[in-house]
Please model this.
Amino acid sequence: MLDFDDSRLENADVLDAAAPLLMNLAGSGARVRREAATAEAPLAALTDADRPRAVIAYGPEARLLRAVLEPVCPVPFVAWPALGLPGWVGPLDVVLLIGRRGPESLAVAHEAVRRGSRVVVICPPDSPLALQADSRSTTLLPVSTGDPLAAAVVGLVALHRLGLGPYTSTDAIAAALDTVAEACSARTDVSVNPAKAMALDLADATPLVWGGSVLAARASRRIAEALRQASGRVGLSADASDLVGLVQQVAPRDPFEDPFEQGVAERRAGLVLVDDGLDDAAAAESRLRLQRSAEAADIRVTRLTHRDDSMMERYATVLLTGLFGAAYLQIGLGRTA
Model:
């Protein structure tokens, strides 16, 4: 088992060696700007002249689009998880494809074109998916970075142009990501760096991650996945009721335990609460239960909070902060080699 060494978070040589990991996260805002600029012309050509019967989204971040669109979309919005399309999809519907490798998206594109649906496909222009989806009813929104969040932002802009979703400011989302990258940069001291502070909180913990709103819950799942990959430990994002049960099972901390004696204690849980300020009454009550349960069990709580700006700016901010936290946990554990 690898031990966490907090000195690695301030060691210039270690941070330089981990630069590719951190620079990839820091470039998130730039990738949003690049994809929006690349797709600018076909986005401008989209209009809301003909309202579809329904929208079916497929691909990475399709559920993110549904979380943003479902409360306000004037037609049914489906994030389709399976191969193919629902049997009722036809010429009256819009199929939005966010490209990825593999035969699944090719099969969905083939089926959408065969049925005469209006297709909006977000993928590299020279990819097999672009060729498969080509038709008179297809709009290709070219992207090139492979960043699923940036592609999803392009999709949100397209849905707004079609009159199906709220206005999405790519500049504002990119600026929010840039702000996180600056706050979480390698040269920022741990005392003012929320991502390094999160890594310290989870240095020897099993992470439990929870978010109350639909978007915060989605961010919590992405963060938990990143923490699992970064640490090699079990990490869980689940409903509050499940996490409360796990927290309540944690044994009280023994004040006489020797932390340097091997085999003395099991790894304790660490709770990460994602807060985008969009909790409903039930989520607010669940958050309070989790906090009280963690306090009673003497479990450390990390809070990722951004309660201002648009839904997507909040989501992007808490998500990227959590991803930076996972990266610094990986660095502190010496798992970047």
